[in-house]
């Protein structure tokens, strides 16, 4: 089966993948005077802005919550996970085109490239998530053991993004407009997802339509965990989980059929 054959080839190149992730992480801050400090400074500044500005200056509130940090937590839990999704997707879509010279000169499984992107983005997100959890602890809003519910939600999100990313990356080799289109589409996609607004502000018919957005139940699940501090509605995650499975299988099939032509097209 194509899927398991791809897994075996990726496993054979696991040290190449790990080494590439390490080099990419180091290169992100190479040449800066403060180095690793920026690993913490960038995400920490985002968290502080989203929580303190909206809580202290704008005094934004969430319906049904008395905490002045409620809207900041709502915003952070949505934007931080959305940023992870967008970073991973946008990099995956262009990964074959951007590494054309490498693919022509070096023989290795091409699927290593989107896996490297996934691992690198996940590592960066883990740092951001750790800082966010520390901040929640400092403001006495840590969700406790419920936090482990994030793991299956993240797994679904990563599978969904990876499947979509590989599929679009394969198509983008032959139709370069795909990469540009994704950059535009995600701008609208953001506002079709309950990140800066609560679903309750929408008319019922609009909420029913937008619920077909696969990121909708995922973002709601993060809100349930971080803000409401209870388990997400697992049944609502069935749709994005099934879609993720379909996209992964479809992406692997499309890539398998076209991979011989990718280098020639590049």
SSE order, one letter for each helix or strand:
HHHHHHHHHHHH
Assign the structural class, choosing from mainly alpha, mainly beta, alpha/beta, alpha+beta, or little secondary structure: mainly alpha
| Helix content percent band | over 70%
Oligomer: single chain
- Residue runs with pLDDT of under 50 for 5 or more positions: none
Helix count equals 12
Q: What radius of gyration results from the CA coordinates? A: 20 Å
**Morphology:** globular
| Beta-strand residue fraction | under 5%
Q: Major beta sheet, specifics?
A: none
Give the domain tally.
Answer: 1
Mean pLDDT: 87
What does this structure look like?
By secondary structure, the protein is mostly helical. It has one domain (21-265). It has helices spanning 2-12, 14-28, 37-57, 70-93, 95-98, 100-105, 112-138, 150-174, 177-191, 204-210, 215-228, 238-265.
Offer a concise description of the structure.
The protein is about 75% helix and about 0% strand. The protein has about 270 residues and is an all-alpha fold.
Features:
single chain; 266 residues; mainly alpha
Topology at a glance:
Elements (H helix, E strand, L loop, with lengths): L1 H11 L1 H15 L8 H21 L12 H24 L1 H4 L1 H6 L6 H27 L11 H25 L2 H15 L12 H7 L4 H14 L9 H28 L1
Helix pairs in contact: 2-7, 3-4, 3-7, 4-7, 4-8, 4-9, 4-11, 8-11, 8-12
